[in-house]
Structures are given as C-alpha cells and as structure tokens.
Amino acid sequence: MSKSSSTIPSVDWLDAVRWDSNGLVPAIAQDAATGDILMMAWMNRESLQLTADEGVAVYWSRSRGKLWRKGETSGHTQRVQEIRLDCDADVILLKIEQLGGIACHTGRRSCFFNRLDNGQWVVTDAVIKDPNTIYRPVKSQG
Amino acid sequence: MSKSSSTIPSVDWLDAVRWDSNGLVPAIAQDAATGDILMMAWMNRESLQLTADEGVAVYWSRSRGKLWRKGETSGHTQRVQEIRLDCDADVILLKIEQLGGIACHTGRRSCFFNRLDNGQWVVTDAVIKDPNTIYRPVKSQG
Predict the structure, then answer these.
(1) B85, B87, B111 member nearest A86 (Cβ)
(2) In this structure, are residues B64 and B42 in contact, taking their beta carbons and an 8 Å threshold?
(3) Which class is domain B25-105?
(4) Within an 8 Å CB–CB cutoff, is residue A87 touching chain B?
(5) How far apart are CA B42 and CA A26, in angstroms?
(6) pTM for this predicted structure
(7) How many Å apart are CA A111 and CA A100, to the nearest integer?
(8) Does B9 touch chain A (CB under 8 A)?
(9) Is domain A25-134 in CATH 3.10.20.810, yes or no?
(10) ipTM
(11) What is the mean pLDDT of each run of 10 residues along chain B (142 residues)?
(12) Interface contact A14, partner B, CB < 8 A
C-alpha cells in the first residue's frame, strides 16, 4: 500500500495502535446499515492485519489462544466496510455487514441482549436461530 | 429495588458481571438517538453501581486511578437511557444522551474519528469545539 500524504505518513498503521500488555485491543463490531452494536471481541496485531487485508473480521480468541475467523464454523462472516481507531488509539471500531444476520453464539442478532431493568438483567432479544443448528461439527482430521 | 421474577432473581446484578483481573469491564457509550458509538471506557463495580443509581455515566479512569464522572469538568454529561450486558457478561453497553453533543476530549462528537484508508489512519471528523474552551480549570483548594 502506498504511503502518501496523510495523518501519520511515516509510521506503519499497526504501530499507531496502543496494544495492551497482552498485545491486544478491544474491537467493537457495529452493523454498518442499522448502527446496532453486535459484539465486542479482542484483536492482536496479526488479526487486525488480516482483517484489513481480507476485508472480513478476524479476532483473537483469548479463551482458545488463537486466531478466530468469525463465522468459520457458523458461516456468519462479518464483511468489513470501515475500520476506525479512537482518540487514544486503544480501541478499534469495525463497521460491518453481518452475514446471516446473527452475530451472537446464542443465535441472537447482537450479543448485547441483557438489559438492566429494576435491578435485574432481563433478556430482551429473541433467538433467531437455535445455536445447535448454526454450528457445523468440525470434521475429525484423517 | 424489588427482586421479583426475572432472569437471575437471587443474584445481585453486579455479581453477574464478569469483572476482569483488575476488577474492570469495558463500557461502550452509544448515542441512543443516532446509534453512533461515541467512546469506550472502563468501569469498576462502584462506577457501574453509581451509573445505575444516578442515571449518568460514571467510569473508572485507569490513568488517574479514580472514579471519572464523565462531564465533571466539561459539562458534557452522559444521561443513561439503558444499560446492557453482553452474552459473556464481560462488556457493558450504555445507550446515552450526550449533553453538549461532544463525547471526545478533542472536541469531537465521537472518539472514533480515525478511519483506516489505504494503509493510513485518516482523521475524518471535524472538531466541533476547541478543547481549550471546553475544560474549565479546576479551582485550587483553599
């Protein structure tokens, strides 16, 4: 990619990100069409690079300790339309198109389906699709 | 507050949050009217409790190591309309009304004003108000 006139011309854009002590930054996925916030996950340098290169969201799974190509088993890929960085350079915002209309592993559109109501978390959003029918079993190798 | 029938009836709603090893969770502030993501900051248990009790966003400043009543020096308070929790119970979403229309300390509406464009972070959003005119100097004590 060309490094012509712009904000931080001589610095690799990945170096401008303030990675935390674990080499990660939070990444918010927002539906580009509706503005709904669908999820927040984490990225390391490699996953952010891949996200930019491939145009689909690739996160870092902290629980599994590996790259997480969102949608790799569900087909619910996130096509990235825009990548933004905040003023402190430590949070990423992705504006995405959510294939299948479901971002959450529970089968809901958004992960933020619990609303605080009178001192209780109340589930507000319906399951669109039974998660048991979303995830294809991974074939055993060999 | 009454503890009647709901999702997690016998557990304090603050105990349902999965605080990280520093006792914090990320909190995303979204403009309730436009859907714009304005900022992401951090909350500890006390700040989330205060946010719910007072109806205005109170964060935890990691850099200053103290409660951060958003807008305390700028007047740009965030009135909270809704508090949400994600499926893993480790990210908070606030739907807010941003008083003054400016969430960012740079004087911009949103903190996410850097957009990745051809391998460069490009500043896309205009400064609405000079930050030097936003923050009132704190009077010295005594």
Answers:
(1) B111
(2) no
(3) alpha beta
(4) yes
(5) 11
(6) 0.89
(7) 15
(8) yes
(9) yes
(10) 0.88
(11) 48 94 98 97 98 98 96 94 98 97 95 97 94 69 42
(12) no
